[in-house]
Amino acid sequence: MDSAAHCGLRSRRHGQRRRRKSSHWSRVGVVGYPRRPGGSRREHHRPRGRQDNNGRDARFSLRCLAAPPAASCVQLDTDDEVFRKPDIASAAGDLLLIHMVVAVKGVYYMKYPHNFFVYKADPDLPWALPLPPPRDVMVRPELTGIARRGEEFPVAHLMTWDVHDHAAMRRVEVAMVQLYSSATGRWETKRLAMPLDPDKGLDEFEWETDTVISFHGLVCWVDYHHGILYCDVFSPDPELVFLRFPGIEMLPGSRRGIPTRYRTVSICCGRLKFVDVDNGQFWSTDSDDDDVSIGSEDDVCIEIDASGCSVRTWTLKMPEFEWEEEASLLLPELWSLPVFRDSALPRTVPTYPMVSLHEADVLHFVLKGPGLFYEAWMITVDMKTKLLRQHMLYENPIEVDLINVFPECPMICSEIVKWPNISADS
Predict the structure, then answer these.
(1) According to the model, what pLDDT value does residue 283 have?
(2) Phi and psi for 308 in degrees, rounded to 5?
(3) How far apart are the first and last CA of the chain?
C-alpha cells in the first residue's frame, strides 16, 4: 500500500474569545492506500499535538484517507499566527517532515523562526516531535529531507554557496548541509565539497534541487535535469556523491521549465526508480540542435509530435549504482487502447508521474486539458503490459469549489500505514 504527500493547503479560521485558532490542511495524495472493507474514506485517526517555537499548540492528524489514487489530507490545527502556510517537506516511511513559519511579535519577518515537526502517521500510536529551530533562518523546506534507520532519524538541509577560494583566486561552489540528529537533539552545520564532474554532467553552479527523498538511509537531493546528490547522513563524516540520471539532457537553470511535472524518482519494493515523460519540450542527450524550443507549459504532445512522445522508466541496480532501463511506452500506444478511446480522457501528455510502491511496473499520472482550471483525471498504467488499468476524475479533498481541479503540485510518495488482510490494489 502506497501513499503520497503533496503540498497545497487551505486554511480555515474559527473565532475564539482570546485568540483565533486556525486549521491548516495539507493534501496527501494517496497512491495505493487501501480502503476499509465495505467503506469509502476513513475520516481520520486521533490527532497528536506538540508546541511550536512560540509555545503555541500544534496538532496533527490524518483525515479522509482514501484508496489509490485518490487524495487524502493531513490537518494541522494551531492557535498561533501562521506567517507561511504549513508544508510537507519530505517523508521517510510513516515519518512526515512538516514545516511552517509563525510570526513573532517584534521580530522582522525575515527572521521568523522555521518550525519543523516530525509526525509519525500511525493510526494506533501517532506522535509528533517539534525540532529545535535550525541555526540558519534561510532554511528552505523544499531543500530539506528526512531519513530513517531503526528508531533514529536525521533531518538534512542542503544549500550550495559560492565562496572565494584564496588559493585558486576565484569563486568556487561548496555545499552547506545543516544536519539534525534525533540522537543528540541538535543541529550542526557541515561544509561539504561538491562532487563536480563535467564528464558526468555536473558542472559548477548548475545544480538546482527539485525535490528530496530518502533511500536506504540516504538523503537524496534531486535535480531532474542532472541527477541525484546523495549523502549518508548517519555517517560521522558525510560526503556528497553525484549520480547522473540516464537518457536526459543536461539543462542549465535558465531553461528548466517545470521538470517536476514530467519526471519523478521514487522507491518501489526497495529499489530506486526514475520516470521520464518525454513531452517534446527538452532536447535529448544525443541531439545536436541547440535551438530546440522548450515550449510553454500548456503545450500538449499532439501539438508537437505525438509519435515521439514517450514514458520511460529506469531502475537503479545495486550495489553497482547503475541505471537499467525497464520499460517504455509511446503516447500513441496509450491513446490507441480501447479503454482510452472509449473514455472521456483528454489526449494530452500525462503529468506528475507517481510510482506504485509495491508494483514495479505500475505508474499513476495526472491527465488534464491545457488550461489551468480544466478538470483532471487520475490514470493508472501498467508499463509492462501497456494497459490502462483504471481512470477516475481527480477529487480535491479540500477545495470543494474546485473539486476536479488538480493543484499543480508534485506528490511525495511514502508508505504511511498498513491495514492487515487488505491488498495494495483494492
Answers:
(1) 46
(2) -100, -5
(3) 9
